[in-house]
Amino acid sequence: MTATITAFERSPDGGKGLARDTRVRWALEEVGQPYEVRLVSFSAMKEPAHLALHPFGQIPTYEEGDLGLFETGAIVFHIAERHAGLLPDDANARARAITWMFAALSTMEPPILEFGTAWLFESDKSWSAQRMPLVQDRVRNRLGQFSRRLGDDDWLDGAFSAGDLMMVSVLLRLKASGMLDDYPNLSAYVARGEARPAYKRAFDAQLAVNTAASTADTGRSGSKDGHRRMSVLDP
Questions:
Q1: Pairing mode, if any, of strands 67-70 and 61-64?
Q2: Separation CA 216–CA 170 (nearest Å)
């Protein structure tokens, strides 16, 4: 049965691959599963039909038969458990890969999102100059810890896994800021993720949606839903 996921009708990042549906697309591409995409506008995300799938009015969601899921980590975990290619067969290696999925979302991503908020939405505040170094230090602390753990390895635990998929997706949020430049092994790690054919297909699919939306908007005064600013942030 073909799964259906939801994605932004017009992604706030303009198709840079930062919207969380890219992570789900990537997972599905890695395991070779076909999927359909239902595009939703910002207003539709707050309507009862979408809220029945995602009670917080965000994307992505995942539907397969009578199963409906939300939260990117849960969706990718479900895909990885259901199909071969993202979790090792060995029980201990499988548990470690799942641990890295949680680490990406629970340990690495929160300070990165905090930095994104400070950078994008608080830079004009009178206290921004005092707060920003503290926020950056929290990100650098996590990057340093992860850099030491990864070392010269290509992937976290042997072969590429769902843990790497989630970790690369999180680190991609820092690419535009230049903060990864101080950690060459992390920059190379992210580049390896971006070079995977499955990631390229997922990225191109999201980019195509946003290119089509931009073309459709040509000559208009603007989308009725408007656009939110996003670089390292998304819902």
A1: antiparallel
A2: 30
Residue 44, Ramachandran bin (φ over 0: left; ψ between -120 and 50: alpha; else beta): alpha
Yes or no: domain 3-85+197-217 corresponds to CATH 3.40.30.10 = yes
Give the Cα separation of 156 and 167 in Å (integer). 9
The domain locations on the chain are: 3-85+197-217, 91-195
Nearest to residue 170, comparing CAs of 107, 120, 119?
107
Query: Percent of the chain scored above 70 by pLDDT?
Result: 89
212 contacts: CB under 8 Å, gap ≥ 6 = none
Say if residue 116's pLDDT is above 90: no
d(CA 233, CA 235): 7
Rounded Cα–Cα distance for residues 214 and 225 (Å): 14
Report which of 187, 163, 164 is spatially closest to residue 175, judged by C-alpha positions.
Answer: 187
Q: What CATH class does 91-195 carry?
A: mainly alpha
Strand-pair partners of 39? 7
Tell me which residue of 170, 232, 233, 222 sits closest to 10, measured CA to CA: 222
Q: Measured between alpha carbons, how far is residue 74 from residues 37, 105, 123, 188, 220 in Å?
A: 18, 11, 33, 27, 38
Confirm if 159 and 88 have CB atoms less than 8 A apart.
yes
pLDDT (0 to 100) of residue 230: 40
SS3 of residue 6 by DSSP: strand
Q: CA geometry: angle at 74 spanning 70 and 75, to 5°?
A: 70
